[in-house]
Every structure is written in structure tokens, then in C-alpha cells.
Design goal:
mainly beta; eight-stranded antiparallel β-sheet; globular
């Protein structure tokens, strides 16, 4: 087992995130998933390409180059996204950016590269996003949707803001 020496404040943050992720991904809080018979690789190649009606607030981040893992130009970040009715989180890939998404309130539809039908996510669901996934999300409801996103982001100096 590998052990990392981290400061007191970071220790509490990591412990809280691990406990939170465990709770979010437990069977009682499983996210909407693609029906087994609808899983098809590459079924969707693109989707909405521009954000619309989305506020994206970075709540906190940790520069992983300064931590025991020493990942240069990499952040572990937590964001709060509010997607207004009709709002869109545009098409993006998770080839280099794993993420966990928790739906705090409302309901939102995911259009995944690996699912032939839209996937519905509701408050209390958690979604895993990792290698092999490209997708976009749309709020098809009449109320705002609030999401908490925790991801590992490779920060490139010339990148535009990444959704």
C-alpha cells in the first residue's frame, strides 16, 4: 500500500472527498445509466458545441504538483455548475480528465458517445466520467439544475476554459 504525507488541512479534504465519493457511488445513490441493450461504442460523434445558460464556479482546487503525487500542471478541482432551463454543457471528452458529477438538484439529460439513447440524471445521482467517454448535457426541464463536479484537470497554458 502506498502512503502519502500530506498536511493536516489536505488530509481532511482528501478524507472528506473519499467519504463523499464512496457515499455518492454507493448503490443507494447510483446515477442514471445507459440501458445495457443500448450501450454502443461511438454511436454519437458530436453534439452541442457551445455552452449555453451555464454558470461554472470553481469552488476550490489543489495544485497536484505541490502534493506528494507531484503531477505537474495538474489540478484536482471542485466546481459548482448551474444549468438554466434549456442550458447546455457542450460536447467534450474525458480522455485526459476523469470526473465525478453529483446532481444536487433538478434533472438533466446526458447525450453520450457510448449510448444509443439519452441518459436521464436526477437529484441524488452521481455520474462517473472517464477514458472512452465523450458527451454533452442539456437541461430539458423548466427549472435550473445544480451539479457538483470534481475532476483532475491537466492545465495547459494556452487552453480556453474547459467545461
Amino acid at each position: 500500500m502506498t502512503h502519502f504525507a500530506i498536511g493536516r488541512g489536505s488530509r481532511f479534504l482528501v478524507a472528506g472527498l473519499l467519504l463523499g465519493a464512496t457515499a455518492l457511488l454507493s448503490p443507494g445513490a447510483s446515477a442514471g445509466e445507459c440501458p445495457t441493450d443500448q450501450v454502443k461504442q461511438g454511436v454519437r460523434q458530436s453534439g452541442e458545441t457551445e455552452p449555453k445558460g451555464v454558470s461554472d464556479t470553481v469552488l476550490s482546487h489543489i495544485d497536484l504538483a505541490t502534493q506528494a503525487v507531484k503531477l505537474e500542471d495538474t489540478q484536482f478541482r471542485m466546481r459548482r455548475l448551474v444549468v438554466e432551463p434549456g442550458g447546455v454543457v457542450p460536447w467534450h471528452s474525458h480522455g485526459e480528465r476523469p470526473a465525478l458529477i453529483y446532481i444536487v438538484s433538478g434533472a438533466i439529460t446526458e447525450y453520450s458517445s457510448n449510448c444509443a439513447v439519452p441518459i436521464e440524471h436526477k437529484a441524488g445521482d452521481a455520474a462517473k466520467e472517464s477514458v472512452g467517454l465523450a458527451h454533452w448535457w442539456k437541461n430539458n426541464s423548466n427549472e435550473p439544475v445544480v451539479l457538483i463536479s470534481s475532476d483532475i484537470l491537466h492545465v495547459k497554458k494556452d487552453d480556453a476554459k474547459v467545461m
